[in-house]
Amino acid sequence: MSALAAKPQPGNTVRVVLEARKIVKSYGHVVALDGVDFDLRAGEILAVVGDNGAGKSTLIKTLTGAVVPDSGEILLDGQLVHFKGPLDARHRGIETVYQDLAVAPALDIPSNLFLGRELLSSGILGSVFRRLDKRRMREGAAAAMAELKFRLPSINSLVENLSGGQRQGVAVARAAVFASKLVIMDEPTAALGVRETGQVLELIRAIRDRGLPVVLISHNMPNVFDLADRICIMRLGRRAAVVSPKTHTMADVVGIMTGAIKVEGG
Amino acid sequence: MQTSHHDRSRYALSQLTAGCAVFAIAFGLAGAIGVSYAQADDVIVGLVTKTEVNPFFVKMRQAAEAEAKTKGLKLIARAGKFDGDNEGQVAAIEDLISAGAKGILVTPNNSSGMLGVIKKARDAGVLVIALDTATDPADAVDATFATDNFQAGVQQGAYAKAALGDKKPVIAMLDGTPGGTVDTFRHNGFLKGFGIAEGDPAIAGAAITNGAQDKGQVGMENLLSKNGDINVVYTINEPAAAGGYQALKSFGKEKDVVLTSIDGGCAGVRNVKAGIIAATVMQFPYKMASMGVDAVADYAASGKKPTGFVNTGSYLITDKPMPGLDSKDSAWGLQNCWGD
Amino acid sequence: MSSATPSAPEASAGLFSRTKAIPAVGPILVLLAFCLVFAITNPRFLAPHNQSIILQQTIVVGTLAIGQTLVILTAGIDLAVGAICVLGTIVAGKLVLLGYDPVLSMLFAVSLCTLSGFVAGALVSRLDLPPFIVTLGTLGILTAALRLISKGGAFPVQDDFLGLTGNTFRVGSFVLTYGVIAMLLLYAIVWYLLNETRWGRHLYAIGNNPEAARLVGIPVRLHLLQVYALAGLIYGITAWLALGRIPNADPNALQTANLDSITAVVIGGTSLFGGRGGLVGTLIGALIVGVLRNGLTLAGIDPLWQDLVTGILVIVAVAFDQLSRRRR
């Protein structure tokens, strides 16, 4: 797999990979998103934070295609896109990692990495007999893990014999291998312990360093400040502010989230 | 890669435990087999009944075991798992051929289902005798030792007609499993004995009981709901009759109905004695089995094979005898019944 | 993180991946143990004639167990296996009796079985009804319908094509039927599907973690539908094999085939929770049951012992599965 090949680094001009404009989504009388703007730049880790009900997860769902917005537009690499479902977003190169360890425990690492996108043998074995190319998948998985510097006991291990952090590592690696544009991580460490969280954070950084931008949804402020290049703060269905962890403190971010600190212009 | 010895040894231990358990079972069996498989030269007689649990077949098996012991034969008994388990009975006969049985006594679940394997057995020089249920064609086996179920049905029907007297008959049929060989014979025999034909308006309705008491009760309840004037009940066997009686009682009709049955199980005969069943027709499973074992012993000794249909007989058992109908009373019945 | 020292639970993979490399080790050991015991106690057990008999006796339940394995791998269960198979025998037999072409009759019967599986699959996958209930309902409906069609009675099926799979041929001193070959061929084909294709990989994923399967874009509902329809097809083919073994269509037959096939699958090491196990184990499981029954008869032991030992094996197998799951 060469999907992990480094993307061209942005020059002086900051390239926007994913942009959303004036997104509105309501459920009955409840307005979940009230004209949200969003932008993700090349090569960055953008954290999205917000209180429960701030519209964070609805925003993410519109970006992954799980929710179709009522109005507003989404641009991927400057092109207008309409996602009708998660598969649309995936075909456009957007991969998502979920908090609840979306792996098949009794399958081995290559099978999980290539789940739903298995490689077939070349020639008649593949085209007529639909035979899996297990060797190529094993090699691809090993190469991907090596590139991400993610160490595992053996590439042939069953996922159920891995620790929670390693399992999530497999899910993250899967997203990294197949995302051509960006990776969205929805609370990827929520189910993990401290040490295992560390493993996954390291992996996220490795993905960014390979040039793939990452959207990280997290409740964990220290993690966000540890990792993010920019922080998008959601409040009441709008984007309240985008700040840098270098210029703002955790207290500032929490203040904006809760409305204790007012921000001009949103 | 570092290994957790704790985890690994626990896994290995559980595998080992499971493995040991299996080998323990296996060698326990070996021990048991060692005891029973003492003499390879025994003349083996196989008995393949319809099921294990029916007291009729239990009696048959006990009689066969006793007779085999007195004749110095080794009996291997097998059975289907349920009424209609052709596959199980075929496998049993195949296994018995493999075991080198000299003769096989079989109560076929289905009169045509076992023709192939019976032919295989006979081609291999095994004497095959059908007990209780004939095959179709009947000459597929060397001989059949059975109750003439049609005749038994006729006896039941004739008694019901006589007991009813001049009243206009309204008949409920508590059938067993429709289409079964024995069921058909008994059902038709009853109609013949009663003097009516299938479809006669006197038949108020039929229910499927599978020969079980609970289903007999439900079936009878439904038939009584449909027609409260029912005054004659045919039952495939005594458990069905016992269930039917429960239903009659709950409708308050147990006094006005002639409840008849077939089989001669001890519970059934006790019900005759108690006045619950007016009359039943007794058959003799132990005769079938012991005659069968004798025939195999003869065949092993002299090569002589029995042929044709041998009626092992049936007796009407009732404490209210009807003129012109041969019968025995329940006291005699209790001495000759089968089951508990 | 990645470079950190692995901790205890990360590390036991080696042994497990080794057991994964040899599927069904446990069941194979059990089978060998029983064969050894029976061979010692009665030399007739190893006679080629007897070995072929055991294989022939395994055909019906063994082939049904292929479909059962597929369903159980999706964390489902199929109680209608026997009823669907009997449907096949009765429809094919009736049509031939009515004078229709035997090949077309059998094809029609097999299609009908496939349709039964398809309907069950539709109810399970579209309406999210529990497989246990759906197949219990199917069992009841078919049992009643079959008794109605056949008026309760069994009837002989005398036809060269329908009985074809009962024909024998010799391999050395072994006498095999075409039915045995058909069963082994079906095992090979479905094994290939399960282990060497995307379809099989997705089946395991669905049984393992349906949510994860859905998230990676596997059409879970469609896949379940295909599994039940394929299982129905296999039961239909089994109907043909069953007619070769016993040329008789009996609405009362195969009443315990559902439990017998589940027994074979479970003894073979496939987890009732789905996603773990496979066909090699199932074939071994079916053979274990056959060997026990045959071996005990040859040894002159009451075959009730077979049920007892089978019961123990089922519990051991499930306990083993449960234990090895709990430690994860």
Overview of the molecule:
The complex is a heterotrimer of chains A (266), B (340) and C (328). With 266 residues, chain A is an alpha/beta fold. Chain A folds into 2 domains: 15-92 and 229-261, Rossmann fold, CATH 3.40.50; 98-216, Rossmann fold, CATH 3.40.50. Chain A has helices at residues 56-64, 86-91, 109-113, 123-127, 134-147, 164-178, 194-209, 221-227, 250-258, and strands spanning 16-27, 30-41, 45-50, 71-76, 79-81, 94-97, 182-186, 214-217, 230-235, 238-243. In chain A, the strands form 2 sheets. A 6-stranded mixed β-sheet of chain A has the order 6-7-8-3-9-10, sandwiched between helices. The termini of chain A are far apart. Chain B has 340 residues and is of the alpha/beta class. Chain B has 2 domains: 44-147 and 285-306, Rossmann fold, CATH 3.40.50; 149-283 and 316-336, Rossmann fold. Chain B contains 11 helices and 12 strands. Chain B has a 6-stranded parallel β-sheet, with helices on both faces. A 6-stranded mixed β-sheet of chain B has the order 7-6-8-9-10-12, sandwiched between helices. Chain B is elongated, with a radius of gyration of 24 Å. The termini of chain B are far apart. Chain C has 328 residues and is mainly alpha-helical. Chain C has a two-stranded antiparallel sheet with strand order 1-4. A two-stranded antiparallel ribbon of chain C has the order 2-3. The two termini of chain C are 21 Å apart. Chains in contact: A-C, B-C. At the B-C interface, helix 1, strand 2 and helix 3 of B face helix 1, helix 2, helix 3, strand 1 and helix 12 of C.
